[in-house]
Design brief:
By secondary structure, the protein is an alpha+beta fold. Helix content is 32%, strand content 30%. The longest helix has 19 residues, at 13-31.
């Protein structure tokens, strides 16, 4: 399996948006989860391109997934979070929207992506990778824990918010 990642330009974002739509529909069908469900705002991804790094995941040159990296603590973590970072002063990558098309899930691509993200972080002198996952997606929670991520807190949203409560994970990185 020939996998690669590349940072995308604004013109490539609609293709990544379509991946989120397909993954959102799949999550809704299989798990009754309602994130990334259409109409997931393309405008949000375009706006995020100004302050975050959007990546494409390709398998043999075919687009199969996406993820976004932010290098500043997300405002939602500050507003809704009860988080106990292992070392709050570390510079960190914050991962958003890690998505692999349903047909390609279960083939090791997600694990490979986490390894690539961790390598990117280390190569850019970041010391941790942080992310969140909704509490009701047990399979995803187990995936992050199996990948070496430690549960360090949670996001509790207000009643009526459009988001589901989530656990926050962190992995401290060491240079090899």
């Amino acid at each position: 399996m020939d996998l690669s990642i590349s940072q995308v330009t604004v013109s490539e974002i609609p293709a990544l948006h379509q991946i989120l739509v397909e993954c959102g529909l799949d999550l809704q069908t299989r798990f009754n989860l309602c994130y990334w469900v259409p109409p997931y705002p393309l405008e949000r991804m375009l706006k995020d391109a100004d302050k975050m790094y959007l990546y494409a995941i390709k398998r043999n040159y075919e687009l199969v997934g996406t993820f976004t990296i932010e290098t500043k603590i997300p405002s939602g973590y500050l507003k809704y979070g009860d988080i106990n970072w292992q070392n709050p002063d570390l510079s960190a990558f914050y991962i958003h929207r890690l998505a692999v098309l349903p047909f390609f899930q279960g083939k090791g691509i997600g694990t490979w992506c986490l390894q690539q993200i961790e390598n990117l972080a280390i190569n850019h002198n970041y010391s941790a990778v942080r992310l969140d996952a909704v509490k009701i997606n047990q399979k995803l929670l187990e995936f992050y824990e199996k990948s070496g991520y430690r549960r360090v807190g949670e996001l509790i949203f207000y009643p009526g918010d459009k988001y589901d409560d989530a656990f926050v994970f962190e992995k401290l990185l060491t240079k090899v």
